[in-house]
Amino acid sequence: MTITAKTSILAVLGDPVGHSLSPVMHNGWIGDFGLDAVYIALRVPADDQAGAFEGLRALRFFGANVTVPHKLSACLIADRLDPAASSLKAANVLRWERDGSISGFNTDAYGVVAALDESHAGWRSMTGTALVLGAGGAARAAAWGLAQAGVRRVLIANRTPERASEVAGISDRCYAFPWEQMGDLFESADLIVNTTTLGMAGAPPFDWPVERAPNHCIVMDAVYAPLETDLLRAARARRLNVIDGLGMLIHQGALSFEIWFGLQPDVRLARARLMRAVADREDME
After folding, report:
1. 6 assigned to active site
2. Which of its termini does the chain have fewer beta carbons within 10 Å around, N or C?
3. Of 26, 71, 251, 273, which is the active-site residue?
C-alpha cells in the first residue's frame, strides 16, 4: 500500500484501542475494492476528548469509528445525526463531508440485528422476550435495535439499577430489573445479549445461570477477545444457539463502510480475516 497526500484516512477512536480488530476488517475491505484509503487505530485519551475531536475536524479526516468512552462526545461534535444516533445519544460512526461538517451515525443497533438475521433467520418469530446484560453504549444500542425489530419485551439487567433504568427509558418495550434476578431473567428469555465486559480477557470468571435458559434460547456475546467466552462456552455445552462477538463487530462495520464509501463489503471475507487475526493473537499470548 502506498500512502500519499491524496490517501483518505479513517480511524477507530477509543481508549483503550490497541485490542481493536477494526483495522484488520476495514483495511481488508479497502484492499478488496482497490481504494486509496487507509484505516488506523488512534488512542484518544479520555481526558482530552474535545481537543482530539476538534483536531480531527481541522485535519479533515475522511471517516471514523468511535468506541468507548467517546460515543457521546462524537454525538455532540457531529453537525447532524441519523435517527439511531439521535435516539441513542451516541454515535459510533463519523463522516467528514466536503463542506467540512461532520455527520454522525450509530450502526451498533443495526449490527446486533443483522448478526441475528445472518445466524438465525427465524429469530424474530420466536423471540418474545430478550434479555440485555449491561447498561453501556452497546447495551443501549442492543435494546433499542431489538425493540425496533419488533421484540415485545426487552429486559435490562445491570449491577447499577439506576443505569439499567436509564437504558430502559429508550423504549416503552424495555424494562429494568435488578442484577440479583439474573437466574429468573435467564429462565424467561428467548434471546440473551451480553454487552458487559464479563468474559473479556483479564476479567474475573463469572458463573452465568445458563442452566436456567430455555432450550430454544439464542445466546449472543459482544465480547470477541476471547472469541469463546465463559458465557458462550456454557451455552454451547447446553447445545444452545450462540453468536460470538465477531457477528456484531462485522455487521456494524459493514454498514460503517457503506456510509463512508457507498459500497457493500463482503462480510464472509471479513470473518475469515478476523478469525485468522484472533488465532494469531492467541498464538502470541
Report:
1. no
2. C
3. 71
